[in-house]
Design brief:
The protein is built from 10 helices and 7 strands. It is of the alpha/beta class. The strands form 2 sheets. A 5-stranded parallel beta sheet has the order 5-4-1-6-7, with helices on both faces. Strands 2-3 form a two-stranded antiparallel sheet. Helix 1 runs antiparallel to helix 5 and helix 3 packs parallel to helix 6. The longest helix has 22 residues. The chain is globular, with a radius of gyration of 19 Å. The N and C termini lie far apart (52 Å). The structure holds magnesium ion (MG). The site of magnesium ion has 6 residues, from loops.
């Protein structure tokens, strides 16, 4: 079945590649190969995900001992926090296709993202303890039905009314504040620092790192981060350069 879906994806993408921004040879995305290989193949990647979700469960159990006047919630980003979309990106890289929002939209429509290790079990546990599970994602509102279908395929519960998708603002801050009006949020889960706080929105790389140091107490407490070396604001926050080698920090 999965093979069929992948064939559909390949066909859909390849039909559109005539219009896709084809990159010049050599493959300009080749630098991402190491990140994808690590993400898709290393035991270490999976272990880090399990570590995040196992720790979150301990943190939730501790919170459940306290009394709250309002309902508890946990807030999740979706992509590379609950869903593994690496197969779509890997296809693009292998075929030297530039990142493109139309291809992303086609990928979402296939509804074949896999689950990030540990996510499903944690979400089921939270629901079993009467904790509301909310998703704040920068997927588009037109992606809601396909996203719900993908959740269903993975056997992960998701309520339509708990999906806060992109409206006008790329920043997730307004949607976070909206959720906080109703719920006591125990933890935020994400793979991108903007999933946690507006402080990280539109910042340069060095500022982002300094802010992480400033918020260090909140990681593993209020903020649970999943590893994502594939893409993210970490990359767009880098200084612009035609040669990524120039951005490497060396001792000499
Ligand atoms: Mg994400």
């Amino acid at each position: 079945m999965k093979l069929l879906y992948l064939l559909m994806f390949f066909t859909t993408i390849s039909c559109s590649t005539l219009n896709s921004p084809k990159l010049n040879e050599p493959n300009a995305r080749e630098y991402q190969v190491g990140a994808y290989l690590w993400f898709q193949n290393s035991g270490e990647y999976r272990a880090l995900c399990y570590q995040a979700y196992n720790f979150a469960r301990l943190r939730l159990d501790r919170d459940l001992e306290d009394k709250h006047n309002r309902k508890r919630a946990v807030v999740f980003d979706i992509d590379e926090t609950v869903f593994d979309n690496s197969f779509g990106g890997a296809y693009e890289i292998k075929n030297n296709i530039a990142w493109d929002k139309n291809n992303l939209a086609k990928w979402i429509k296939l509804k074949i993202a896999e689950a990030i290790p540990g996510a499903k079990e944690f979400i089921e546990y939270a629901i079993s303890r009467q904790v509301e599970v909310i998703y704040i994602s920068n997927r588009l509102k037109t992606d809601v039905n396909d996203t719900l279908d993908n959740f269903k395929r993975l056997g992960i519960s998701a309520k339509r009314e708990n999906l806060y998708f992109l409206s006008k603002d790329w920043s997730k801050e307004d949607r976070r504040l909206e959720v906080l009006k109703t719920y006591d949020v125990v933890m935020f889960f994400g793979d991108n620092l903007g999933d946690f706080h507006k402080n990280w929105d539109s910042k340069k790389s060095d500022e982002r790192r300094a802010l992480v140091d400033l918020h260090r107490q909140e990681f593993g407490d209020k903020f649970i981060i999943l590893p994502n070396p594939l893409y993210g604001d970490w990359e767009s926050s880098l200084q612009k350069s035609n040669n990524r080698l120039d951005l490497l920090k060396t001792a000499l």
